[in-house]
Amino acid sequence: MGVLVRISVAEAPAGGVTIVKLAGELGVDTAAELAMAIEELLDRPTNRIVIDLALLGFCDSIGLSTFVDAHRRCAAEGGYLALAAPSPFIHKLLGVVGLTRQVPAYATVASACAGGDEGRLR
């Protein structure tokens, strides 16, 4: 049986940022599902995306690559992609692989939606 991830998309009430919530495990069997969801968002006039990681328990290298690819696509469209609210495990993973140098990550969804340095994780 494959690794499971639940993806939900909700528009933020202000600022035109789309929130993508992940729950479960993001891996080789499920990263394509996230990539497809991001692709569908970018087909609309959406180019500012925050991925809420609060309920994500696991992420492998394919999942991490999906974040980088989505970030590059959003930037090419004049927007951004940011990661938000990672668990301590996911935060450590992001730091160890150096992902937070490429894709901005924030302590909370609100700080990710606001952008800037407040709440930014290193």
Sheet-strand content, in percent, reads 25-35%
Shape: globular
Briefly note the structural class of the backbone: alpha/beta
CATH superfamily: STAS domain
Please describe the structure with a list of short key phrases separated by commas or semicolons.
122 residues; alpha/beta; Transcription Regulator spoIIAA; six-stranded mixed beta sheet; 36% helix; anti-sigma factor antagonist activity; Anti-sigma_ant; Anti-sigma factor antagonist; STAS_dom
Task: Compile the SSE list and pairings.
Layout: E1 5-11, E2 18-26, H1 31-43, E3 48-59, H2 61-76, E4 80-84, H3 88-96, E5 105-106, H4 109-114, E6 120-121
Parallel strand pairs: 2-3, 3-4, 4-5
Antiparallel strand pairs: 1-2, 5-6
Helix pairs in contact: 1-2
Family: Belongs to the anti-sigma-factor antagonist family.
GO molecular function, one term: anti-sigma factor antagonist activity
Organism: Asanoa ishikariensis
Question: Gist?
Answer:
With about 120 residues, this protein is of the alpha/beta class.
Structure notes:
- The protein has a six-stranded mixed beta sheet with strand order 1-2-3-4-5-6.
- By secondary structure, it is of the alpha/beta class.
- The chain contains four helices and six strands, in the order ββαβαβαβαβ.
- α1 packs parallel to α2.
